[in-house]
Amino acid sequence: MTESPALSDTQAQVVALAREFAAEHIAPFAAEWDAQKRFDRDVLRRLGELGFFGMTVPEEYGGLGLDAVTYLLALEEISYADGAVAISMGVHNSLPTQMLARWGSNAQRRRWLEPMARGELLGAFALSEAEAGSDAAGLTAQAVRTPRGWTLNGMKAWVTNGGTADVVLAMCRTDREGERRGAHGISAFIVPTDAPGYRAGKPEDKMGLRASNTCAVTFDDLALPADALLGEEGQGFVYALGALDGGRLGVAAQACGIARCALDHAVRYAKERRQFGRPIAEFQGLRFKLADMATRIAASRALLYEAARRRDAGEDVTQWTSMAKLFAGEMVMGVTTDAVQVFGGYGYMRDYPVEKLMRDAKVITIYEGTSEIQRMVIARGLLRS
Ligand code: COS
Fold this sequence. Notes:
Elements: H1 9-26, H2 30-36, H3 41-49, H4 68-81, H5 83-94, H6 96-103, H7 106-117, E1 123-126, E2 142-146, E3 149-160, E4 167-173, E5 186-192, E6 198-200, E7 214-225, E8 229-230, H8 236-272, E9 274-275, E10 278-279, H9 284-312, H10 318-347, H11 354-362, H12 371-383
Parallel strand pairs: 1-4
Antiparallel strand pairs: 2-3, 3-7, 4-5, 5-8, 6-7, 9-10
Helix pairs in contact: 1-4, 4-5, 4-8, 5-6, 5-8, 6-8, 8-9, 8-10, 8-11, 9-10, 10-11, 10-12
The protein binds coenzyme a persulfide (COS).
């Protein structure tokens, strides 16, 4: 029941490849990577070789030129095996590569996007700061024009791939103290992580997605050439939020993959586990729970792929992506919590797979815009005359 109907041949092939790769090279190691907080760059390199790091990047820039639906189907399969690998791949695909593809000059695309699409360079996205999370436009990292280009100072928080990426798309203020221009005083910069003055903090000790690298990043008199500015000065916030429209769909696909994995574990366990002389799957209370889990996953996938189809059709999907992300985040938290419940005492133990899924799920209601921010975006769209 989890297969999508009416996949094109290309989509079916991409899904099969992602599923096969994930089953062989990711799923067997996910628990160990989680326990050791181990980020496996090699698995990402191999995903890159297969084309999974430039899925929607135009072919002329080394990508596969696929649509959003196909990309999200693949990301869902990787997420089924491990949400941590999926978020590294998702951030790279949805945020920095999209910003470069959409707003980069030809020279910037050749220098950065092409190797990123081939998986040779890993990308990150730095918007949030310690004091500017939901209120992203309140960020204070500063970029100052110099005779040779730009100098960046400031600190970014919770940067996925921040300590492992080769290049970061960083949003910094380019307006001056006393002449603040709010969201329009922010510009986007292409920051190589080997630039002197780039410092990644120690990996955060997270509840879930422990194998993905998340850290604070400091720019300390970080000097960049003039062509490090992406697109137009003052448009960085708009570019970042535009990219987050895609990022939020990626996170919703991640939720669907994790939830499907939790449901499969719960169904299998319910058939095996015997109490009161019979498999617990024979108890109506449990059957109803499984039925509700499956229904919520199917509804979430339907909303996600509707949003993605609209994006592929060129519609403004800001509200749709927020609805898909909101629903998926709440859905995956509920489904993984229910899966732990189906496993009972065993579900609470690290020896069984479902507690990891529940830990991995929680951040989906928080990152790339909390559930509350998604509701705000949806309501704004509804009430805009
Ligand atoms: N795509 C493109 N442009 C967008 C956009 C979108 N989805 N959403 C807003 N913009 C534009 C607006 O059109 C506006 O430009 P104009 O003044 O030219 O119209 C500009 O960006 C500022 O938008 P707005 O006034 O709505 O900004 P706010 O400060 O009110 O912030 C919210 C809007 C709260 C929605 C935004 O800050 C947000 O999404 N916060 C959550 C941040 C987040 O997801 N962080 C996670 C980072 S990755 S872990």
